[in-house]
Amino acid sequence: MTATPALGTPRLAASEPPSAFSDFSAAADPSALLRSVFRRHAAGVAVITACGEKPVGFTATSLASVAAEPPLLSFGVGTASSSWPVIAEAGHVGVHILGEHQRELAETFARSGADRFGPGTGWRPGPEGVPLLDGVLGWLVCRVAARIPAGDHHVVIGEVTAGDPAGAGRPLLYHQGRFNALRD
């Protein structure tokens, strides 16, 4: 590929076959473009929890390992989320890796206005008072190390302080706007 000097946009050389890049429109809405591309990205599904006056939680597909020393992870949370006011003040959060058998739990924690900690959700208080969900593949309790503003979200950095990786099953994935099972 060669670059168009004025815009820095890739242009196909005459000898290169056409590809999806040749259809890219620089005029596309960047937010829509981001959502469209990331629908093609399969992501693991987690639920983040914290405890204020009452427990809060939300489904996250933005979970990422950041560093091994110290053990850090990150996730994004929308500032318009009902969980954000508690996450914004919490000293610790719970991170739960969901199994493919927990699609309904993922949907509950993703649904606005749902009774996330109601009778259908098995949970217990864990270290630092963080709500821990039952039946997950693994869980971590993290001390909140940073909250970084990022557009209409905050990126939260957590330092792992406790956890359990011993849950059984296969991971739940999110792809093309749906919760899916891992296929071999």
UniProtKB/TrEMBL annotation:
Domain Flavin reductase like per the UniProt entry, residue ranges: 38-181
KW Oxidoreductase (keyword) present: yes
Pfam families xref list: Flavin_Reduct
Entry keyword set: Oxidoreductase
Keyword Cytoplasm listed: no
Top-rank lineage group of the source organism: Bacteria
UniProt xrefs under PANTHER family: FLAVIN REDUCTASE (PTHR30466), FMN REDUCTASE (NADH) RUTF (PTHR30466:SF1)
Official protein name in the record: Flavin reductase family protein
